[in-house]
Structure formats: structure tokens, C-alpha cells
UniProtKB/TrEMBL annotation:
Residues 335-569 form the ABC transporter domain. It comes from the Bacteria. InterPro entries: AAA+_ATPase, ABC1_TM_dom, ABC_transporter-like_ATP-bd, ABC_transporter-like_CS, Type_1_exporter. It holds the Pfam family ABC_membrane. The lineage of its organism: Bacteria, Bacillati, Bacillota, Bacilli, Bacillales. It is found in: Cell membrane. Keywords: ATP-binding, Cell membrane, Membrane, Nucleotide-binding, Transmembrane, Transmembrane helix, Transport. One of its GO terms (cellular component) is plasma membrane. Residues 33-301 form the ABC transmembrane type-1 domain. This is ABC transporter ATP-binding protein. One of its GO terms (molecular function) is ATP hydrolysis activity. It is a multi-pass membrane protein.
Length: 582
């Protein structure tokens, strides 16, 4: 089956364990099938002629076989646990790595809940199928086939009659498979939606309280829980139907067994021992087939999970590294965007043929109305996305040719929305640069004007951060995020609205710090606070995905264009002709 491609791929790398498990299964199946056969000899050659020697011989063989069977079973269980554990370990790691190396657009295509259900619900189904359902199915399948072959050697007419009758067993599952798959998929999707709501409820708890959205959230959750209930009901019903239909077919087979078997005995075409052996073996075969039919719903459920995980694994990153990526030399001349056109969706370009050039070591600023494309331009400089047209170059080297590692080493960014890990302040800093010594992170915190604050806390740099930074003030979070970036000593520093969450005093501190970094690093700052970029070497005024004007603060004020208008709105005042008010 197509969804089980992943299973094949992972099992191929665990050949030795597979071979050991297969050997244990052969022994177990051999015993299950041979045991009923021994009844024929016990009855016909030992019990009826009362031959004690033959009886003891068969008993001895059965004992040895039984011990072997127990040993093979225990060994098989251990091998299986190891096999499934290793496979799941690899699959989990691969999925994690795969999600992590995705380009930024991936995280907008999938919502958090959809991704997390792949890791929990779907991987649990896969674990269940690999560790239990699949091996059990394999064992029962082989038992059924081997038993059936033996039934043919015991009495081919009866075996043929049963084989024809057993085709009934497969009609039901065939008809029910598609609707059962659809029901399983619906449940998985509903789980994803509900997981999303829980995620939003936890992350947005303050907004929910402040906007009094509890009832709306509860209504949404209720709807999703109701869907989970109704889809779950459908899935359970389909699954139980899948189990029940083959059970009914088995009753028909029993009738054939008794009716036609009795007829053969009356006709002297089958011995009593042969019939007992046939009947016992038939019971083993039908039990195996019954177990197989019980497993079908689990196979269907896991095939949906396999497909969902496979689908995610096939989702290739949109931004890929060049085959032979070049290391990025320290910036010596310019960062340039050359006729760049880009849109998050095909039909809506956000940047429209934008060109700009920023000299190395300068302090540049991107300003402009909301939605004009400033943050998007910054993200393209970081190569979070690739332009649809045009080029982005560092000293003439196309960013697509630069290795991701060296780009990230040289270009640091501080976002408007800071994300901090649930660890101590020190650990958050160390994550950024594991080799940094204490004096390095203290220096970075001093440069971000945070050191004095941390020093006053009882636990200092060991203060734990909880709720992804929710335990710190907006300004502290932002300054810690700045320190974390500075610790890596990037030669190009991108700042995306870093002072927007800060009070004026802290903003002034940060702006002073930025002024100190000037000259050392090339700084590009996206901001709405024009006062913070008065000293910028170059200001680019964005408007509708392009540069409306550029220059220094003084030059732009003189131009009396969009920048002047923005400046006057923020800091200027107008005196109307009447001079009665300002
Ligand atoms: N991930 C995204 N997917 C789709 N559209 C996006 C995405 N990010 C931004 N946009 C859209 O692209 C346009 C430009 O957004 P961008 O954030 O670059 O503007 P901006 O000038 O930085 O705005 P602001 O000053 O408000 O931060 C907006 O219309 C925005 O809705």
C-alpha cells in the first residue's frame, strides 16, 4: 500500500533486526501450524492403535517444539520492541529536522495545531502499527497462508470449499475501506483544528481576557469538540463494521466445515484423526483471519497517519541552498537589492521592482507607511524568502550563492516580536553563542542596556524565563533579544521595529546604544519612530512596495515629500493662516 512506503524505507535500514524478527516469526508460525497436524498422528497412529512408543515420541517432539516456540516468542518480542523503537526514533528525528529546515513560508501554510498533531496523534498511530498491528498482521497473515496450504495437503476438497467460501471475508472490508479512510481523515483534521484552538487559547490568554473573547473561544472549541465527537462516532462505527462483517462470513465457513466435512467422513474419504487435525488447523486459520480482520481498522487509521506524515516529509523547502554555497566574506562595499519583485502569493506583489544600495558600515533606515513592504525587504535580505525577480547581493555576491551558515553568522536580526526560550537568562544567551564566556554576555547585556537590571534581580543571570518570556516586561524582553543578537557580533545588524515596545527612556537608551554600534557594523533599522533615525546615514522611504525617496534626514525634509509629511505628523506642528491655533 502506498502509505506504507515510509515503513519500507525505514525498515530497509534495520535489516538485521528484521531478519531476527522474521526468524522468530517462522518458528512461531511453524509451531502453530504443526501442532494441529500432530493431532492426526496422535489419534490415527497412537491413540486408536494404543501405541505408547509413538505417543511418547510425538509428545517429546511437541515439548521441544513448545520450548523453542516460547524462546522464539520472547526473542521476537524483544527484537520487535527494538525495531519499532528505532524506527520511531528515526522518524521522529527526521520529521523534527524536516520541519525545522523548512523555509519561513511553511509556517504560514501549516498552523501550529496541524504540525503538532503530526508529532503526537499521527506518530502514535504509526507507533501502534509498527510495534503491534503490523507484526501481528504479518504473523496472522503467514499463519493463515501456511495453515491453508497444510489444509490442502490434509483434505484438498474440503480446503477448496473453504477457500471459495472465504472470499466472502474480503468483500466487506473492500466495500468499507474508502468510507473508513475518510472518517479517519476527518478525525485527524478535527484533532488538528482543536489543537490549534488550545494553542491560541494558551498563547493569546491575555488578549482573550482583555477583549473578553472567552465566550467566542468557548463557542469555537465547542463546535470543534462536537466535530470530534461526530467524526469519532462515525470512525468507531465504520471500524466496528469492518470487524463485524468478516465475523459473519466466518460463521458461513464453519457451516461448510461441519457439513462438507461430515459428508466426507460418511463417504470414508476422511479419517477421524484427519478430521480433528483439519478442524483444529481450520480453527487456527480462521482465528488468524479473524485477527487480521480486527487489525484492518488500525491499518486504515495508521495509513491515514502515514500519508499525513509522508505528505509533510515531501514538502520541500522553497528556499534552498546552492549546490556549492560560498562563504560570505566580511562586507566591504555594499548591500544591494536590484530590481526586486516579491509577493507572498503569486497575484499580490508586495515589493515591485525595488532597488537600493547600502554602503558597508553605514546606518540605514527603512521608513514608510504601514504595509509598504519594509519588513518584507528585511526578510529578503536575510533570505527568509527568495525574490520572484531581481537580485539581492552582498558585495556583488548573490545571496542565493551564499551558505546559510555564513549568512546567519554575519547578519543578525532583532525582531519586533521577541521569542525567548523557557530557560534562564544565561541559557538564552548561551544558546546564541555556546562558546561565549561570561564577560562576553555581560558585555552584550551592557550594550543592550540590560545588565544593570539583571544585576538587581536576586538570581541575576540565572533568573528563569517562563512562558516564552511572558515573565519579563516588553522592554526587558526586547533588550534581552538585542543582547542575544549582539553576542554573535554580527557585522550586519537588522532591526525590525525594535523600539516599538519600549518606553521613551528605554528607547533613548537603545538608540544611544545603536549610535555606539554605528561604524562597527552595518545597521539597517525598520522603524516608525523617525526621531530614532535622525542620525542615519541613509533613509529609504518605502511606499507601496517601492522606494519613494531616499537621503539623509536633512535632505528628505528639504524635499518636502512623503518623509517630510510623516515627520510633521509625528513631531511637527502647523500654524494655520488665522494663527489662532497650532
Ligand atoms: N507572511 C505573510 N504572508 C502574506 N502576506 C504578508 C505576510 N507578511 C506580510 N504580508 C503582507 O505584505 C505587505 C507588506 O508587509 P510588511 O510587513 O513588509 O510591511 P511593513 O511596511 O513592514 O508594515 P509595518 O510597518 O506595519 O510593519 C502587507 O500587505 C502584509 O499584509
Amino acid at each position: 500500500m502506498k502509505p506504507f512506503r515510509i515503513l519500507r524505507r525505514y525498515l530497509a535500514s534495520l535489516k538485521l533486526l528484521c531478519a531476527l524478527y522474521a526468524a522468530s516469526v517462522v518458528v512461531e508460525i511453524g509451531y502453530v501450524v504443526a501442532f494441529p497436524l500432530s493431532l492426526k498422528f496422535l489419534v490415527d497412529t497412537a491413540f486408536i492403535p494404543k501405541d505408547v512408543q509413538a505417543f511418547l515420541f510425538i509428545l517429546g517432539l511437541l515439548l521441544i517444539g513448545g520450548l523453542l516456540n516460547v524462546a522464539a516468542g520472547a526473542g521476537g518480542d524483544y527484537t520487535l520492541a527494538k525495531l519499532s523503537g528505532r524506527m520511531l526514533q528515526t522518524l521522529r528525528t527526521e520529521l523534527f529536522e524536516h520541519v525545522q529546515k523548512q523555509s519561513v513560508d511553511f509556517y504560514t501554510r501549516y498552523r501550529t495545531g496541524e504540525i503538532t498533531t503530526r508529532f503526537n496523534s499521527d506518530l502514535l498511530s504509526i507507533e501502534q502499527v509498527v510495534g503491534a498491528t503490523f507484526p501481528l498482521g504479518l504473523k496472522q497473515g503467514f499463519t493463515a497462508v501456511a495453515g491453508l496450504c497444510l489444509l490442502f495437503t490434509l483434505e484438498w476438497r474440503l480446503a477448496l470449499a473453504l477457500l471459495l467460501g472465504s472470499s466472502l471475508l474480503f468483500v466487506g472490508p473492500k466495500l468499507l475501506r474508502k468510507p473508513a479512510e475518510a472518517a479517519n481523515l476527518a478525525v485527524k483534521e478535527a484533532e488538528g483544528h482543536f489543537a490549534n484552538t488550545i494553542d491560541e487559547m494558551l498563547k493569546g490568554h491575555k488578549t482573550i481576557k482583555a477583549l473578553r473573547l472567552q465566550q467566542a473561544m468557548l463557542d469555537r472549541a465547542r463546535g470543534q469538540i462536537l466535530s470530534l465527537y461526530s467524526f469519532g462516532l462515525r470512525r468507531s462505527f465504520m471500524n466496528s463494521l469492518l470487524e463485524r462483517v468478516p465475523m459473519t462470513s466466518l460463521m458461513a465457513l464453519n457451516a461448510i466445515m461441519i457439513g462438507f466435512g461430515g459428508y466426507l467422513i460418511f463417504q470414508d474419504k476422511l479419517s477421524i484423526g484427519g478430521y480433528i487435525a483439519f478442524f483444529t488447523l481450520f480453527m487456527s486459520v480462521s482465528q488468524a483471519v479473524f485477527h487480521l480482520s480486527i487489525l484492518i481498522p488500525y491499518f486504515i487509521e495508521s495509513s491515514v497517519s502515514f500519508e499525513r506524515v509522508q505528505h509533510m516529509l515531501e514538502d520541500a523547502p522553497t528556499v534552498v541552498e546552492a549546490d556549492l554555497p560560498a562563504p560570505m566574506p566580511p562586507l566591504a562595499h555594499t548591500i544591494a537589492m536590484d530590481n526586486v519583485t516579491f509577493g507572498y502569493t503569486e497575484d499580490h506583489p508586495v515589493l515591485k521592482g525595488l532597488s537600493l544600495s547600502i554602503p558597508a558600515g553605514s546606518f540605514a533606515a527603512f521608513v514608510g507607511p504601514s504595509g509598504s513592504g519594509k519588513s518584507t525587504a528585511l526578510q529578503l535580505l536575510l533570505r527568509f524568502y527568495d525574490p520572484d525577480e531581481g537580485r539581492i547581493t552582498y558585495d556583488g555576491l548573490d545571496v542565493k550563492q551564499i551558505s546559510e551558515r555564513s549568512l546567519r553568522e554575519q547578519v543578525g536580526i532583532v525582531f519586533q516580536d521577541t521569542f525567548l526560550f523557557n530557560a534562564s537568562i544565561k541559557q538564552n544567551l548561551q544558546l546564541s553563542d555556546p562558546l561565549a564566556a561570561e564577560e562576553d554576555w555581560v558585555a552584550a547585556c551592557k550594550a543592550a542596556h540590560l545588565h544593570e537590571t539583571i544585576r538587581r534581580w536576586p538570581e541575576g543571570y540565572d533568573t528563569p524565563i517562563i512562558q516564552e518570556g511572558g515573565s519579563l516586561s516588553g522592554g526587558q524582553r526586547q533588550r534581552l533579544s538585542i543582547a542575544r543578537t549582539l553576542l554573535r557580533k554580527p557585522s550586519i545588524l537588522l532591526l525590525d521595529e525594535v523600539t516599538s515596545a519600549l518606553d521613551f527612556a528605554t528607547e533613548a537608551d537603545i538608540n544611544r546604544a545603536i549610535a555606539q554600534w554605528k561604524g562597527g557594523s552595518t545597521i539597517i533599522s525598520v522603524t516608525h519612530r523617525l526621531a530614532s533615525i535622525i542620525d542615519a546615514d541613509l533613509i529609504f522611504v518605502f511606499q507601496d512596495g517601492n522606494i519613494a525617496e531616499s537621503g539623509t534626514h536633512g535632505q528628505l525634509l528639504e524635499r518636502k515629500g512623503l518623509y517630510r509629511e510623516m515627520w510633521e505628523k509625528q513631531y511637527g506642528f502647523r500654524v494655520p493662516v488665522s494663527e489662532s491655533q497650532a
